[in-house]
Amino acid sequence: MKIVSLKENIVWLENYVALRNQYAKALFSSEMNSDETRDWLNNRDIEVLIAIENDALLGVGILYLNKKGEITLFVKKPNQGIAKLLLEKLQDYANQKNLLELWAWVHDENKASQKFFINNGFIDFSKENKTVNTTTYSGIIYKYRLD
């Protein structure tokens, strides 16, 4: 398995859009098309890493530099170590960008993600609500201090 930048491997764009749109509801987002995604990728304040093996895109890790180190992870098949590999690469990239910490907002009901972040050294930092359109969701901020 390889972890590579989507920006540098744009041939994976359609695969990324398909996987991302499968997770749109869990990401509290609407679906996006390829043109919207290509425009979004032009933003210098994000890094999108993808896990690929053979001809398959297995997972995605996103680092939002403009949101002080917020990250998002989603994988095609959970519990295969893919998210952990993506997280390690995001940590390396964040260190190169001199960020002090990474953080993620996790919905209260997403127990698998909560366990993942705790098991990977993140701390349960605070409760925080997130409003998307007119709906408010309750979640937890997990933080990780970088070296």
From TrEMBL:
N-acetyltransferase domain segment(s): 1-147
Keywords: Acyltransferase, Transferase
Protein name, entry field: Sortase-like acyltransferase
Pfam family, one: Acetyltransf_1
Single GO molecular function: acyltransferase activity, transferring groups other than amino-acyl groups
Lineage, opening ranks: Bacteria, Pseudomonadati, Campylobacterota, Epsilonproteobacteria, Campylobacterales
CDD domains noted in UniProt: NAT_SF
InterPro entries recorded: Acyl_CoA_acyltransferase, GNAT_dom
Superkingdom of origin: Bacteria
PROSITE patterns per UniProt: GNAT
